Prior knowledge:
CATH architecture of the largest domain: Distorted Sandwich
Strand content: 25-35%
Number of domains: 2
Order of helices and strands: EEEEEEEEEEEHEHHH
Number of strands: 12
Structural class: alpha+beta
CATH topology of the largest domain: Glucose Permease (Domain IIA)
Largest sheet: 10 strands, antiparallel
Oligomer: single chain
Distance between the termini: 43 Å
CATH class of the largest domain: Mainly Beta
Amino acid sequence: MSMLSPFKGTFALTSPRGYRTLNGTREYHKGIDLVGKEDATVYAIADGTVYTLYEQNGFGNYIRQHTADGKRIYYGHLKSFIAKGGSFVKKGQPLGVMGATGHAFGEHLHLELRPAGSSSSSLDICEFTKIPNTFGTYCGKPQGEFSKDKTVDMLMQCGIVDSENRENWELMLSGKAPLNQQYVRILFERCCKKLLEKGVSA
Length: 202
């Protein structure tokens, strides 16, 4: 099994799973901390329903994703959300943008896996993702294909087209349905927002 990466391109593991000391307190770090080097967008590492939440003194802006077998994946300290709360996303779809909300000393992603029915115990996220549990820089690629139409697939990977409108875009781009003016407007608005987030201006 290849590595399940929440980032495109290279990322650094800055805090492994295990015991660590912060501000003089030794505690068990249940997940891993990652920093995207080339792209701050965070992608789903599994299929599942996402919930967008906010915790002031902990994860800050975070997403809790429920998988089919009941496991829960936590994506913490996000700057902003891309996925809508309550929506179903597939592995490789964008969820949000890496940030430093909540209890964080710098921009990073806290990635954690918990078993079904538990709010405190954790599972080994490194075993699940195949990301080595050691400091270092790694290179991964979000996995998943969302559409057989290459253009629609790219738009979904960028977070511009969502799964609810996938079939409509496939029909429109194949010429089997007329272009919907409202859909086109939304697409351009989302493209412009993406460019502004990356600091691109006219």
